[in-house]
Amino acid sequence: MLMNRYEFSASAFRSSKSICQYTVSWKRLKEIITKEADVPQQEVDGALRELTQYVKAIVGSEASFETIESSAAFIFDLLKSVSIVGKKETTRLRQVFGPFPASAASNACSLINKIVSWLPENTLDSLGNQDRQEADGEASMTEFGKNIKFQGLRRGQTFEEDVLSSDSDDEDRRELDLKYIASPKKPIAPKKESPNKDSFDSSWLQREVAQYFPGEETYLGMSKEDLCSTIFDVLTASNSDEQLQNDLFELLGFDRFELIQSLIQNKQKIIEGALTQPEGNKQTRAKADGGNRPPVTRPNYGCQVTVQTENERQMMKMMRREEKKEKRKNEEGEEDVGFLFDPVYLRAQREAALRAPQPMFSGGRGNYAPREKYPFVFDSMEEARQSSAFIGGVKMVLPDSFINKSTKLAEEVRIPHTEAQATNVGNQRIKIEDLDEIAQLAFKNTKALNRIQSVVFDAAYKTNENLLICAPTGAGKTNIAMLTILHEMKQHISQGVIKKDEFKIVYVAPMKALAAEMVRNFGGRLEPLGISVKELTGDMKLSKSEIIKTQMLVTTPEKWDVVTRKSTGDVALTQLVKLLIIDEVHLLHDDRGSVIESLVARTIRQVESSQSMIRILGLSATLPNYIDVARFLHVNPYVGLYFFDGRFRPVPLGQTFVGIKATSKVQFLQDMHTVCYDKVLEQVRQGYQVMVFVHARNDTVRTAMVLRDLAKNNGEMGFFTPEQSAQYGQAEKSTLKSRNKQLKELFPDGFGIHHAGMLRQDRNLVERYFAAGHIKCLVCTATLAWGVNLPAHAVIIKGTEIYDSKKGAFVDLGILDVMQIFGRAGRPQFDKFGHGTIITAHEKLSHYLSLMTRQNPIESQYINSLTDNLNAEIALGTVTNIEEAVKWLSYTYLYVRMRCNPLAYGITYNTLETDPMLEQHRRDLIVDAGRKLDKAQMVRFDERTGYFASTDLGRIASHFYIKYDTVEVINEHLKQIMTEADVFAVVSKAQEFDQIKVRDDELEELDGIHHDICVMQVPGGSENTYGKVNILLQAYISRHGMDAFSLVSDQAYVAQNAGRIIRALFEVALKKGWPVMAGRLLNLCKTIDKRLWGFENPLRQFPLLTNEILNKLEAKKMTVDRLKEMDPKEIGHMVHHPRMGGVIKRCVNQIPLLDLEASIQPITRTVLRVRLNIQPEFKWDDKVHGATAESFWIWVEDPDNNHIYHSEYFLLHKKQVLSGEAQQLVFTIPIFEPLPSQYYVRAVSDRWLGSQSSCAISFQHLILPERHPPHTELLDLTPLPKSAYDDPALEALYKFSHFNPIQTQIFHVLYHTDTNVLLGAPTGSGKTVAAEMAIFRVFREYPKAKAVYIAPLKALVRERMEDWKVRIEQKLGKKVVELTGDVTPDMRAVANADLIVTTPEKWDGVSRSWQTRSYVKAVALLVIDEIHLLGDDRGPVLEVIVSRTNFISSHTEKPVRVVGLSTALANARDLADWLGIKQMGLYNFRPSVRPVPLEVHIHGFPGQHYCPRMATMNKPTFQSIKTHSPEKPVLVFVSSRRQTRLTALDLIAFLAAEDNPKQWLHMEEMEVSGVLRLINKPGQHSCYDMGQIAGDP
């Protein structure tokens, strides 16, 4: 029988109102006491606050605020008439709360007596009467749709009969059938008239609807009666006012705002009026429910709005109209006018339309069409989906074998375990002995794979396909991951050796505890193969060398996201990843799901852009929309999609869901204990062991004690007491040795406790004796489910509220935890089935039922973090414009779900019809996010061109995981000068802490910490969220322990995030160049890391020094510098502990300090080169400093302007410290005139407080270079024709007719004079022709003399030789000789040569023997090309050549002309003076003087490491080519031979992702293949094929 929300609402409403409460509410109690007490208000408030603290001690610090208040009211009621806590009161308290501190109860009793004494006698009487109707914590109206009773109406029973029936204690079994059976019409039994509820009944609803829908039918295609019924369903089913408002707007439209407002305001009265309406109105309601309709052949619509296509809507409209006309004709005998439609035919058409397969994203009722069948999807529920009930739009809720039992105490839904059905799937088990040697090593303790693993084996172990495995917990998904790992390893075996440096495998686990378990599992199994498995999480950091040595990394989503976000340093790591395994993919639905979406989208884009293979394996519990997830993971559903339902669980699981009905928190606690005990006893009676999971450490003891007491009181201890045996006797002796008092007390009765706060040896004892069967009932926390594989037949989750510090509130236990805990139910070796029980509040029952029976499709959470993720991609360089961003969004799960379920993401079906790929919607999302980022200065977004460019702030936010909202706070509040208190105030306002709430029960403790512990001012005090965050942060640094459970959790969350945010602020200050703030923020980072204030002694960083010693040092104000000057004996006597003197001295010498010495050299009047010598001044100890390096921040600051001119991160390695060798840093800084007095160089340790060194750079004796004369102006001259040579032979050498402007201006000096010339001009301005002018003058004026041309590189020499051999030797008849290291002609050829082309080194060697070599003396002209290389390493050779030439000239008394060719120079005058050039021969043109104008774009890239930095430049290079020269040839210069190939391959990869991959190839395919045959290097074939040439000198 199908369940309808409308029918359930009445019984759920009755049950919630029927429970009688036993005490007045705490709120009411406070009001009475405050009003009637005859003492000052302040004293009353203090007493009530004190009472809640005592109550918290009794209830448990982990309890929620509502529970504590409710318990306070209960305890007040219990103790108000007694003077001491007697046996009766103790028993009652123990029954409700379990064991409690006696002192807390006594203090509470005394305080209550004191409060009672303040009140008049009659007040006490009024509190004591028994007519207590007001329930603590009870809502005025229970929300409908939450307290659903999972039962259907009996055949023939009407809704009214069900309303009148009351809950019974008898077990009421209901079976769910998939066929819809409509209730037959029955006369409605008369009912006694109930009082009118302000006329808000179904008649009122009909009148209102008629007013807004005046026609016979509404625009929705349904009658007014149907619309009233649907509105009532919506009113009773919505979870919140916000959801209700959205549902009503969707149903009625925005133009009926007043009607919606009226419905929301009067929702409660409408529901109550409809449930208790007078007899007259009953008929109307019945009619609205369809009482007067023809027999119903399809289910009514529930609260879900059914989406119809236009054709379907018109069809339904015509069908209803025809039915009404038929009805009127029958009743009134009127003749029907108009077109005749056959309703039966129309209905048949409708059913056929629904069943027909539709396009995947048609926007119609596609969800109800039968799904395509895939070969490896084994889903028993899929057949049920094809039934008419499902197609009609009613959601199937539970399997047909469920049992429902409802009592006044609780409602229970039991889903029996499904027997493993006979199926042929996986019967052919894969035996391990049949596999290869590698697999046998990894599966050495396994004989054969199980059914699921055998089915997946071929795809996992023999292909590279992406896979999605959906299977129940405990089905062996880990072994499937192992198969894919082994397959990946096999691809990197060469000659029997695994090439470990060729691949990386990343396993993403959702929790750190699970990551640690996976490391143990995989690490142990892969060790024989020599594969290293390491954990990389927030707790476990790996150095770069460790990562290189590791083949498999087990990490969390957030950590891997951070690693892949950083474009510098980790590029090599991400490029080596060949297999990405994502465990628990169904977490996409969770808040953290957006991180998984980012990872997958980034990985798939990397695959497509780099054309490299990265295999993705998704592991998941059973989830409803597995096809969507498969599409998101790019899984081929015919090959890689595997879905196994509950039948494949190794041990079938029965599930019980219990919803406690009590609304009072105290009653709820008591009822939960009762139900929990009943469930434990039920299992123990049958001889099974039980695990009871609770959510706080203290609660383990409390629950175990309560369960034991209940067993004793009921005389049922015999079921729990262990069997006496020798093994038990030994176990009891071992337990008695434990120091855990509660464990010793509980063990003999068959109970045990287990939580992370226990000692490791005690936990081992409990685990061992539970496995041995000595403990029947183990009460534990969820850490046992995650960290230890210890199954039991039955598991019980007692309560589902846990405190989430991220949200600052108690939240529902997540589906991941529930499934992990349920995965512990059933022992494969012993049990045929297992059982899992959830005990929760009644309103949460439907929530957990839908989660555990996979009712709700998992949706994307990406939209909430779209802005931050877009910033991360822009900072990474993978998104540079809107088109790329739109494409990037198409890789996300958000895109998949937006197309499947557009309404959930605010997209109308109209939009989907017109834009099926949602291009415009994605563009709108990106533009909106881009505007936000631009406003926050995180990116630069040009809407006109659509380009994104990352800023320093955006990169920092991405690397440190800072949210966009927090960056806005930073922009608003961060200033150049701030105190530490100001910084804490800014950090406290970060968006990361917005969810933290301030609770009344915490105020007293927070105020106490504020006044006693906080060392800095707290703006806002403890009443505000940011004030609370500030207090918690200061308390954390001061190492102050918290009493309240919620404060402990909040403090850990605050400390974890505050350190990260302040690190980001430090980087921001460094980039902005604020030295004071940078130093202050770096100290605060270390303050939080070390939990040590800056004013405390730095020696507190050494744990071996006691507090007593440290206090003495602080009392005597002993600084580290003073202690350095003292010897150990002096220190020992000073602290009155001679032996400690040496220890203190050793610690002082271990604080990392540096000795800095700076020397400066001016390069120009505005640029200064600094050489910084760094000498370590401390002793290295591996226990203190680690085994690798100490990190420092070094910056140069100008104290007058408060600005940093240079900063860098410096690593001092262990071997450098041990050797004592000085390190040298060289960098340049700007300098301004007038000269400042001094700059400071500071070196501050990145992790040690008190480690700071500095040295001053003084400019007092600095002599700056002289001011350089201005550049030579290019004169506006008429271009000189080549006929100016006045020699036809010379003129014939040139193809052009006129010289360019520079050549025109220098022609006279070069060709008609012998003056030395220095020509500085930009590249490409014709300097070679200028050299030829001087050479031709020698040929003309001094025919017997020689000219020497010196080029800096052999390649340039060869280039000149190829040109001049033709033009000068062949055409002019002059002899040209090459003189290099590669070519050495005989001396006769050199002696006969007219022009010698050589390199500096070769001419230096030849000219050294000038006295014996006549051809050296015969040189009349020396042309030095690229003379600016004087400032380079080869400069001394050029200096020697010029000096020797001048020396030879003075001896032979034959002048030698020197012509220097250079680029534009800054100090051309100095060089000209050295060359002996007067004003006439100096031509130094501006760099901008070019024959062809040049546009320059300079793009700087952060990062110290060469390879990652070069890799990040490739994408911008590709974009620049596309932007600036899409059609014409492009030259890309890189700095090494290896990089030519790497850059070319990256550019090919980017081209491959384009629509036209061969857009750069401008020749026919046949020509290309001809060229390729001539190329010997196979690596270059792909380059030529795509229109590129990768080459090096």
Question: How would you sum up this structure in a few lines?
Answer:
It contains 66 helices and 36 strands.
Total domain units: 9
Using the coordinates shown, work out and report the CATH topology of the largest domain.
Answer: Rossmann fold
Number of strands: 36
The CATH superfamily of the largest domain bears the name P-loop containing nucleotide triphosphate hydrolases
Helix content range: 40-55%
CATH class of the largest domain: Alpha Beta
Q: Stretches where pLDDT falls below 50 for ≥5 residues? A: 1-22, 128-197, 279-309, 332-341, 357-368, 388-396
Terminal CA distance = 82 Å
Shape verdict: elongated
CATH architectural grouping of the largest domain: 3-Layer(aba) Sandwich
Q: Major beta sheet, specifics?
A: 8 strands, parallel
Average pLDDT rating: 79
Structural class: alpha/beta
The number of distinct helices, counting runs of at least 4 residues, comes to 66
What order do the strands of the largest sheet run in, or round the barrel if closed? 1-12-4-11-10-7-9-8
Overall radius of gyration? 42 Å
Strand content: 5-15%
